[in-house]
Amino acid sequence: IRIPVQNVKKQLPPVEEPRRSLLAAPEASELAAIGMQPEGEPTNADLKAYVSQLQAEALAIKKEATSWQARVRELEAESEILRQQTSDLRTELEEWQTQTSDFEAQVRDLLAEVAQLRNREVEVRRQTRHQVVSSVREERERLLHRLLAVADNLERALAHADHAAPLFAGVRLTLDGLLAQLANDGVVPLQALGEPFDPNQHEAVATDGSSGDTVVTVLATGYTLDGRLLRPARVVVGKPKR
User: Fold this and answer.
1) What CA–CA distance (Å, rounded) separates 31 from 34?
2) Helix, strand, or coil (residue 224)
3) How far, rounded to the nearest angstrom, does the alpha carbon of residue 115 sit from its chain's CA centroid?
4) Is 231 within 8 Å of 192 (Cβ atoms)?
5) Sign of the C-alpha dihedral computed for residues 85, 90, 91 and 96 taken in this order
6) CB atoms closer than 10 angstroms to residue 197
7) pLDDT at 14
8) Pairing mode, if any, of strands 187-189 and 223-225?
9) pTM of the predicted model as reported, rounded to 2 decimal places
10) Which pLDDT tens digits describe the chain residue by residue (242 residues)?
11) Can you tell me the distance from the alpha carbon of 12 to that of 6, in angstroms, rounded to the nearest whole number?
12) R_g (Cα) of the chain, nearest Å
């Protein structure tokens, strides 16, 4: 911080030319100024007049010196005030610098908190999206299982119905329509009969008493949903008849 200070020299009273000593002999111009002639010895009256003039000048010089000293004291007081103001301003500047450092630290902390909140927001959104997708998938699979139960009942009805009965064609048509709709939703039946037993796709509920590992009977059709297992096929395992 720069504080404009007036030039002290400009405020001091002008310095006059050095005055001649009071004990020096008067010059001709000074004698002429008081009506004396430079020739001849001065009279007592002339000397008194000259001394009076010198006393008057000495008094004026003293007053001038007193005024000058008072002005010097004023300038010293102003200089002290300026020094105190400079010290106060320096102290205030240091306080502002300290506060600025504190504010910068607070800003850094807040930015770090904002970054953490953003990361948390991203994580929450990811978890929420995952939960929503999982919930929708679970609800969808639950609904499809209920529809597959209906398909199982229709298949059992066809297995025990007379093919020549008028109702058989209606049930067959209903089952085909249901399976077609399930296929549109990505549900595809597994072909298990005659296939080697696969524990990843088949659920063995019985064997035919032999040591075979081939699916000989399908009790309930298995299905996949969008390429992954939705429900395993319930099967009987044994040796295929030849």
Assistant:
1) 5
2) strand
3) 6
4) no
5) positive
6) 19
7) 53
8) antiparallel
9) 0.49
10) 443 444 444 444 454 555 554 445 555 555 555 555 455 566 888 888 888 888 889 989 998 999 899 999 999 999 999 999 999 999 899 999 989 999 999 999 999 999 999 999 999 999 999 999 889 889 999 999 999 999 999 988 888 888 888 888 889 999 999 999 999 989 999 999 989 999 999 999 998 877 788 999 999 999 999 889 999 999 999 987 76
11) 11
12) 61
Q: Return d(Cα 133, Cα 135) in angstroms, integer.
A: 5
Q: Which two tokens stand for residue 240?
A: 């295929």
C-alpha distances out from residue 37 to 24, 54, 57, 191, Å:
17, 18, 21, 155
SS (H, E, C) 176-217: HHHHHHHHHCCEEECCCCCCECCCCCEEEEEECCCCCCEEEE
CA distances (Å), origin 138, targets 113, 131, 134, 147, 185: 36, 10, 6, 14, 14
Give the whole-angstrom CA distance, residue 48 versus residue 54.
Answer: 10
Q: How far is residue 219 from each of residues 142, 163, 209, measured CA to CA in Å? A: 21, 20, 17
